[in-house]
Design brief:
Structural class: alpha/beta
Distance between the termini: 41 Å
Strand content: 15-25%
Number of helices: 12
CATH topology: Rossmann fold
CATH superfamily: Alpha/Beta hydrolase fold, catalytic domain
Number of domains: 1
């Protein structure tokens, strides 16, 4: 069964809704424009709505595809599916790429979308041409004190209650990701809240939160295998006032991918919302040069 899209404002998100059936549910995606493929991968608690400005602008020259992970946005996850870990979402993404027969891909990732998308590229590097990173990571988290603190909370009864009943991820944590709170107006905020109306729908949020440290070994495996895509063309677009994934994370990327083009922005976790116009310009320039 597919989710209703009646709550989506077509002025903010003026795209045709497309779906593909995967083993674990119906994946919603948008597919706009033609030409070389730009594949947008979101994190949590967002969905393809996060990339709406990029799709509107870049689809005049490129084929812009943005998915919703199963359980997020307008995608539906089967009730009997396994825990929605990054590994789970990466396998769904791999199936999507296979079904859509995508090649020559420019991969755009953010937040948990980093491990999810990059692992798919690592598995089959021939299908990917360029990598564009927003604030994300791809290495072990078990030794990170902040991650361990978060993990302790989300494993507790209080953390589970906050995620499943208070809907804390889009309600509060999303807000904290903005450097300037006025950049998240009420209608935009509602578009991040409404995909998660009840306890059942919010389990995917809890699953990813518990995977921050729970999937630490898997992240590290991907980090070690990154050499398979290290010679691609890389663009890193980074919000320097991100209280979740800050400048120290960026430095680790710079050390690992010294050939990457780096653009820094005075904003929080969501460059796509706070610095859309400027980051689109850099992305456009990068695409033309590569």
């Amino acid at each position: 069964m597919k989710k209703s899209s009646k709550w989506v404002n077509p002025t903010l998100y003026p795209f045709d809704h497309k779906y593909v059936e995967l083993e674990n549910g119906y994946m919603h995606y948008v597919d706009e424009g033609s030409g070389d493929v730009i594949l947008f991968i979101h994190g949590t608690p967002t969905w393809s709505f996060l990339y709406r400005h990029y799709i509107k602008k870049l689809s005049t020259e490129y084929r812009c595809i943005a998915i919703d992970h199963l359980g997020f946005g307008l995608s539906e996850i089967k009730q009997d599916s396994q825990e929605a870990t990054p590994q789970f979402h990466s396998e769904n993404l791999r199936q999507f790429i296979e079904k859509m027969a995508l090649t020559n891909i420019t991969l755009v990732v953010h937040d948990f979308g980093g491990p999810i998308g990059l692992s798919a590229a690592i598995e089959d590097p021939r299908k990917f041409k360029n990598i564009i990173l927003f604030n994300t990571w791809l290495w072990e988290t078990r030794e990170n004190a902040d991650a361990v603190k978060v993990n302790k909370l989300v494993k507790s009864w209080l953390g589970k209650w906050l995620y499943l009943y208070a809907n804390i991820s889009p309600r509060l944590l999303l807000k904290q990701g903005f450097n300037k709170k006025e950049n998240l107006n009420r209608e935009m905020h509602q578009h991040y809240m409404l995909p998660f109306p009840n306890k059942r729908s919010r389990k995917v949020l809890l699953d990813l939160a518990q995977s921050l440290v729970g999937s630490s070994d898997w992240y590290e495996d991907q980090w070690k295998a990154l050499e398979r895509i290290q010679e691609k063309n890389w663009l890193i677009l980074w919000g320097m006032k991100d209280s979740f994934i800050g400048p120290d994370y960026l430095q680790k990327w710079v050390d690992r991918i010294p050939s990457a083009t780096i653009k820094k922005f005075e904003c929080g976790h969501f460059v796509q919302e706070e610095k859309a116009i400027a980051s689109i310009e850099y992305m456009h320039k990068f695409m033309r040069e590569t």
